[in-house]
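Hi everyone, sorry if this is the wrong subforum. Our group has a chain we'd like a structural model of before ordering constructs, and none of us has done structure prediction before. Sequence below.
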Amino acid sequence: MSLLDIFMIAIRVAFSAFVPLCFIAVCVWMERRGAGFFQDRSGPNRAAIFGFRAAGLVQNAADGIKLFFKEDLISDHIKHKFFFVLAPIIVFFCAVMSFAVVPFADTLVLGGNSYVMQGIPMDVGILWFLAIAGFSVYGIILAGWSSTNKYGILGGLRSAAQVISYEIPMGLSLVSLLIVYGTVNLSEMAQFQGQLLFGFIPMWGAVLQPLGLIIFVIAAFAECNRTPFDLAEGESEIVAGFHVEYSAMKFAVFFMGEYVAMFASSAIIITLFFGGYQIPFLNTQALIHLAKPVAFLLMIGLPVVMYYFAGWIRRSNVSHYERENDPRVFEANVYIKCFWGLIAIIELLLLAILLMQSGGAATHIFVALLQICTFLVKVTMMIFVYIWVRWTLPRFRYDQLQKLGWQMLLPLALLNIFITSAVVVALG
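Answer:
Right subforum, don't worry. Here is the predicted structure as tokens:
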């Protein structure tokens, strides 16, 4: 095994492990700022380090430090302390591992060798996701049972009933998708979506399977225990449910596991239904062929986008009343200078792409980086949908979720399979 092989393995494993963890801060920030926006308030904007608030991101650091140093209590009435501590670890580990099979770029070819851009390259990627994501419910059930608390046990029981209700429609919605793609390999699914339908419509799963998309997204919300399906932790009914006895870092691990699961779920949704890393109308071969024109357009477009973004930063970072030497104006100027410095570095890299030979290693790396950025942008947009729904819809009742899963989603998923099979057979 060459040094390049070892380096590429380290890169893809590091991406699959650390990017979801880094997105915890992004998800928490989006959740809080999004909640503030939907509720017509500012959101977190007070915590600061030397006057720098980072638009509320510093609040995440403050909360992390608070939870890390908070006293970790385990009540005397808890008999099974080992399982009590193990439960949040299971939830967090399953959330991280479920993302490991998601491709974040097309296969990278360097020096005649091909490198699959997945943390764990395997042919049964979607089955791995279903198995690992479904296993996380054991952590929730274990947390409720080991808490020896009636609210915790009720939360665990709700989660057990909930998983039966949504897992079956989720699996059946994927069956119709697998009929179209003809594979369970996530990389091959993403590559399939780089084609065009009728020569001008991207062959994304959302176009080919709109009903499957709706069923899968609803089931994914329930998978992540997100509102309106957060029945296992309904504060107004069972006082936080399965994690009612948890505090300090054990509670934080549950908290982080939920956001990592939301990131992984968003990643699988965009991989299955929204082209994954594919840029609309520009598959990998087209990007390699048009690398220099794309780099030139980016060189022109990025400064324009940064100009308007800097104007937005200046307008947003002003105190609500007149202040001499307004510290928020100074803060905004520092951010703008940092962003312009980043743009300058990117411009130099794009210039290097223009000066290098087409089709070489630099071109392939440039295309892979474009696809990674596209993948992360799509995932971020899907995360926003999760937040949007949470702060828009009220929580479903327990019986309403059962009715939705068994009487609506299940028949629709079966109907979708029959219709898809008939169309595929008719078209040969």
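For your construct planning: The CA atoms of residues 217 and 269 lie 7 Å apart. The chain is about 70% helix and 0% strand.
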